[in-house]
Write a structure and sequence with these properties.
about 5% strand; mainly alpha; about 350 residues; 3 strands; 13 helices
C-alpha cells in the first residue's frame, strides 16, 4: 500500500482543535456548565486515536466493505433511541452506555458517507439510478427527522452534495429544489413543534421575543460585538462567564471564542474552515474514482454545512437549529466521529490510486 502524505489537512484540523480546546476551557468557567468538560474534551481527543488508527491500518477497500455492517448498526442504534433514548434538551436521541452518553446520529452520518458512495459508484444512468440511494437515505432520514430537525437538515445537505457529484441532470436538481421549496412551507414547517418553528424564524427579528426565543441569539450577538477588534483576552469574557450566553460550550461556542478573541480571532476561524473545505474539495478533484469523489462530497456537505449553520446562527444570520460547530464545540460523540470522518477522508485520499480489490 503506497502512502502519500499531505500535511495541509492535519495542520488545519489541529489548529481548529486548539481553538476548540481554548473555547471549551473558557466556557467551563460559566455558571451551569460542568467544570469537567475540558477534561472530557481531552478524553474525546484521546479516544479518536483508536478509530483513526484502525482506518489507517484497514485502508480504503476494507473500509468500503464494512459499509453495510456499519450502516445497519447505525440504523439499529438510531431506532433504539425511540425506546431507550435519554432526553437531552427536549430531544430523546441520546443513548447512555454506563458513564458514556452517545448520540447515534453521529455514527449514522459516517455510515451514510460510506454507504451512499458504495451504491452510487456507477454514476447516474437514468431514473433507476435513484432507487438504491433513496433506499439507503430515506430510512436514516425518517428516523432522525422525527426527533432532531437540525440533524435531519445535516443529512439532507449531505445527500444533496452527494447527488450533485453523482452527475444528476440539472433539470432534476432544479426539480428537487422546487419540491423542497414548496414542501417546506406547506408540509414540513406546519408540522413542526411550536418551539421548533420559533427557533427557525426568530433570527429574522429576535427582539420581537427578546426574553423568550430571541434571548439566545441576542446574547450571542452582544457577546460577539463586545469582543471588538482584538477581543477581551483568553478567559476574560464577561458575557459567557456571567451566564448571559446560553450553551456557551456547544451551540454558541463561536460567540464564546469571538468575545475573547475579537474580530481577528473570528475571521481566523472562518479562514480555517475555508481552508478545510478547500482542502477537502481539492482531495475530491484529485481522486480519479467517482466512488471516492462521492465520499468527499458527503464529508464536505456535513462539515461545511454544520460550520456555516452554527456560525450563521450565532451571528443571527441563519436559523437556530442546535447544530454544533465541528471540532470546536464540546461533545465527545461529535468530536470523535468528526475526527473519524476526517481520518476516513485522509485514508481514502492516500489510497486513491491503489487498485480496487
Amino acid at each position: 500500500m503506497s502512502v502519500r502524505f499531505d500535511l495541509r489537512l492535519p495542520v488545519i484540523v489541529a489548529a481548529l482543535l486548539v481553538v476548540g480546546l481554548m473555547t471549551v476551557s473558557t466556557a467551563a468557567l460559566a455558571p451551569r456548565v460542568s467544570p469537567g468538560i475540558f477534561q472530557k474534551q481531552l478524553l474525546g481527543l484521546g479516544l479518536s486515536v483508536l478509530p483513526i488508527a484502525l482506518l489507517w491500518w484497514a485502508g480504503r477497500d476494507r473500509i468500503y466493505r464494512t459499509a453495510p455492517i456499519l450502516y445497519g448498526l447505525a440504523l439499529l442504534l438510531q431506532a433504539s433511541t425511540f425506546v431507550i433514548g435519554k432526553d437531552v434538551n427536549g430531544q430523546q436521541n441520546w443513548l447512555v452506555l454506563g458513564p458514556v452518553q452517545f448520540q447515534p446520529l453521529e455514527l449514522l452520518k459516517l455510515a451514510l458517507i460510506l454507504m451512499l458512495p458504495l451504491v452510487m459508484r456507477e454514476g447516474y444512468k437514468g431514473l433507476r439510478s435513484y432507487a438504491a440511494p433513496l433506499a439507503v437515505f430515506l430510512p436514516a432520514f425518517g428516523l432522525v427527522v422525527v426527533q432532531d430537525f437540525g440533524g435531519a437538515m445535516v443529512l439532507g445537505v449531505m445527500f444533496l452534495a452527494i447527488l450533485l457529484v453523482f452527475r444528476m441532470p440539472l433539470l432534476h436538481v432544479l426539480g428537487l429544489l422546487l419540491v423542497v421549496g414548496v414542501a417546506y412551507p406547506t408540509v414540513i414547517f406546519p408540522h413542526l413543534k411550536p418551539y421548533q418553528q420559533d427557533r427557525l424564524t426568530i433570527f429574522i427579528d429576535p427582539y420581537k421575543d427578546a426574553r423568550g426565543q430571541g434571548y439566545q441569539v441576542i446574547q450571542s450577538t452582544i457577546a460577539i460585538g463586545s469582543g471588538g477588534m482584538m477581543g477581551k483576552g483568553y478567559k476574560k469574557g464577561t458575557q459567557s462567564h456571567n451566564g448571559f450566553v446560553p450553551e456557551a460550550h456547544t451551540d454558541f461556542a463561536f460567540a464564546t471564542w469571538a468575545e475573547e478573541q475579537g474580530l481577528v480571532g473570528g475571521v481566523a476561524v472562518l479562514l480555517l474552515y475555508a481552508g478545510l473545505i478547500w482542502g477537502l474539495a481539492g482531495m475530491a478533484s484529485g481522486s480519479p474514482r467517482l466512488q471516492d469523489q462521492l465520499l468527499f462530497a458527503g464529508v464536505l456537505g456535513q462539515i461545511g454545512f454544520q460550520a456555516i449553520e452554527n456560525i450563521g446562527a450565532a451571528l443571527s444570520m441563519l436559523p437556530l437549529t442546535g447544530i454544533t460547530l465541528p471540532l470546536i464545540s464540546y461533545g465527545l460523540s461529535s468530536l470523535v466521529m468528526t475526527l473519524t470522518t476526517l481520518g476516513l477522508a485522509y485514508v481514502v485520499y492516500r489510497d486513491r490510486f491503489d487498485k480496487m480489490i
